[in-house]
């Protein structure tokens, strides 16, 4: 397997900035790709060891392109996550004035994060989506558009200048990125972990989603992301992408996954990996009756009942 990481490029994306915060990135060749699907396909095809892609932002929730790529196709696993604070700059060719801007571009995930700023400052400007924010900067350099929303750091590589900086509609906006590879044994639990799965119901019935969520709730497992995605099999047919607190080696998480496997049409395990948002010290203690020790004690009691030793 090549010692390389594919990522959503080109040079100058927020994805590249977030990827370079990983210590192991310094020992890998970083290969920019034209899209999230292309980055993940590089892993599936054996062209890259792993792919680094955005999966969620704090303004709009899950990045649907990434979720859909993880839901379908050959299975992949998440091994790491990174959180990056996001603020945009309006990049233009030198000499461009705000009043001269008629077209603007950026990645689709950027639009909800600058929508109000645009209403106030560029109300009549036409928005066109780009494959990434840095690719939008490249298109401005080529003269295709008048301006691009991107990181201020993308100005230099594309010969642009930041006309406005510090643009964001929501304070403390963040994007979550994940390092994705081929399925293998998850890393050992850290005590501050997250488990990601995709669930498909056997059929559509009243309380169906409640049944799925109940497998987590009865074991005291908090959910951090719940997003439905269409299966492509007709209106009303959805699967559910879920991030849950804990690691598959935790008894309560493993027990919940076994329960889901029994009642779901399909369960796709996307990995257990360290959380980027909290330290081990900040993780809440398990609810009463859901610690590993209590699961072991309960299993031991059942065994003793089998032996008539209760």
Give the total of beta strands: 15
Strand content: 25-35%
Low-confidence stretches: none
Q: Please state the structural category.
A: alpha/beta
Query: How many DSSP helices?
Result: 8
Helix content percent band: 25-40%
* Order of H and E elements: EHEHEEHEEEHEHEEEEHEEHEH
Largest sheet: 6 strands, mixed
Structure, described:
26% of the residues lie in helices and 31% in strands. It is an alpha/beta fold. The strands form three sheets. Strands 1, 2, 3, 4, 5 and 11 form a six-stranded mixed β-sheet that branches. Strands 8-7-9-6-10 form a five-stranded mixed β-sheet. It is elongated, with a radius of gyration of 22 Å.
Could you outline the blueprint of secondary structure elements for this entry?
Layout: E1 4-8, H1 14-19, E2 29-33, H2 36-44, E3 50-57, E4 61-62, H3 64-71, E5 77-85, E6 88-92, E7 103-106, H4 111-121, E8 126-129, H5 133-141, E9 147-150, E10 161-167, E11 174-181, E12 193-201, H6 208-217, E13 223-230, E14 238-245, H7 251-263, E15 264-274, H8 292-306
Parallel strand pairs: 1-2, 1-3, 7-8, 7-9
Antiparallel strand pairs: 3-4, 3-11, 5-11, 6-9, 6-10, 12-14, 12-15, 13-14
